[in-house]
């Protein structure tokens, strides 16, 4: 900022400061940079005693700069420095063939396939359930309260049982994990879609009745288009939950592949850098998936004639 | 519902109950219903009640049908105690179960279509319908598991899980204290408190707020429970690591919601505060925080569930030998599924009670909000 102030005339600097891009992104960039700085300081402070202990055990004399350099390059640090995490991430993404068990791409695809299958199953089930609830007063009165109640229950706790039960009847691998994902992510979709299907106001429903529209026509021409914004809002929530479900489903079962298995293995063997790299991979996956839903929403919106 | 269809349904239910007298109850040789006077009386009563409810209408029909359902359900449950029936039930038994299902279904449908006038009656009805529905689901679960003799390793009956729940109350109490009181509550208070404080600071300095809002949105969409192994490494196996995970998981939803809530007060109110000469602290305490309460409670409710999930998942990575998550993973490994279900029931009760308390606090403090006006 300061250098540009020197280089530009005062008015240009002012214009730059009020440029929409700067107004929007300057705070974010500043805070991200501050967080990275804090991370470095924390890494130095947390790993200090570890590195000092190492030097003293080997009885080599050391300087402060050597000590700090040591905290940045320890093999099993308490808190790895950001560049170590990124190096490990890049190395395990590009350093191995995508099918090698050390490649993060391999583990990510395992988790991603469970996530996506679970998401599709959950979305279909959730929408179907919402359709039934909207069309039946009995179901609305009897089933909906239970669905809302189950939101308050830590459903993730069911994950290990599901894996054990499904394993006992011969289901293993991808499907049990995606069933957990589906089970976790159909709730927000059902709730959102019930809201969406009931979003048209009575006037519009009355209009459909004056045209003597069948329930199916009311659904296709009025309820469904009205529910689309709700659909995408709940899909965005659901896809992250689905990813969390897939990762957690890999934890208690000793799965061999997947981001959750990577986390578990890292925690067993104290490979902190590996854990952080796996976390970074899950963050990349999560933001990619949300971005995908976001993009679909925009495309569908344009198709349906929404003004950009 | 069409009265003719309802009548047909109840007649079918009565016929189903009666057919249990003639069809074989089990594939093994067992005493028939007519040989057991009490059960015979219950069966006949159920059939009579169903028939009576077929020929009456309105709320009397529901009451009669419900009494019939109770009689028939009691008969099937008593029958299941006979070791010759559990696991090898046959047509007669299932005819009775189907009759119970049909009768209960008709009662629920009829009950849901009632439109009582009074406010209290409507509230009671809104409670009774889902409760009845849940009772039917539990009954079917119990009867199916025991009637077909599903091995308890796969799926225990609800009664087995309930017996296990009652008989291992001390262990469950320990787990509850370890996971909920220590891990969840402490982490929840730290996480939500920190989120609220940061939001208040960020509202004071808008530069910070504009940077934190998108970042907070981004972070609250990440699978943050994944940090559990790191926290276990940093804070050890005991509850501090669980509290740390819970604090981290609950921080971002609170930050995002509180930031949105703190800017919810309108220009008019702000101008009014300025015309009173209120300083920043007074505006915060008297205007911004009260206006943000609905948003803050929204975050508190989201976090109530997230916190329990975070603590249970963190326990999968290592615990002292107690805690809900620890018990679930070890008992699932030992195939003691009834204990796992008892723990899940504990987690469910704790989660609902926690959520309910937060919701009650919300009612008490945001009674002025339009969503509560009737």
Distance between the termini of chain A: 33 Å
Q: What is the tally of helical segments of chain A?
A: 14
CATH fold group of the largest domain in chain B: MetI-like fold
Q: Report the sheet with the most strands of chain B, covering strand number, pairing sense and barrel closure.
A: none
The CATH class of the largest domain in chain A: Mainly Alpha
Please identify the top-level CATH class of the largest domain in chain B.
Mainly Alpha
CATH names the topology of the largest domain in chain A as MetI-like fold
Number of folding domains of chain A?
A: 2
Mean pLDDT of chain A: 81
Please indicate the percent range of residues of chain A in DSSP E strands (runs of 2 or more). Answer: under 5%
- SSE ordering of chain B: HHHHHHHHHHHHHH
Q: Tell me the CATH superfamily of the largest domain in chain A.
A: MetI-like
Task: Provide the gyration radius of chain B in Å.
Answer: 28 Å
* CATH architecture classification name of the largest domain in chain A: Orthogonal Bundle
Report the principal-axis shape of chain A.
globular
Helicity level of chain B = over 70%
Arithmetic mean pLDDT of chain B: 83
Class by alpha and beta content of chain A: mainly alpha
Report the β-strand fraction of chain B as a percent range: under 5%
CATH architecture descriptor text of the largest domain in chain B: Orthogonal Bundle
Q: Please give the number of β-strands of chain A.
A: 0
Structure characterization notes:
The complex is a heterodimer of chains A (308) and B (374). Chain A has 2 domains: 2-77, no CATH class; 104-303, MetI-like (MetI-like fold), CATH 1.10.3720.10. Helices cover 78% and strands 0% of the residues of chain A. Chain A contains 14 helices and no strands. Chain B folds into 2 domains: 3-150, no CATH class; 166-372, MetI-like fold, CATH 1.10.3720. In chain B, helix 13 packs antiparallel against helix 14. Chain B has 374 residues and is mostly helical. At the A-B interface, helix 3, helix 7, helix 8, helix 9 and helix 12 of A face helix 4, helix 5, helix 8, helix 9 and helix 12 of B.
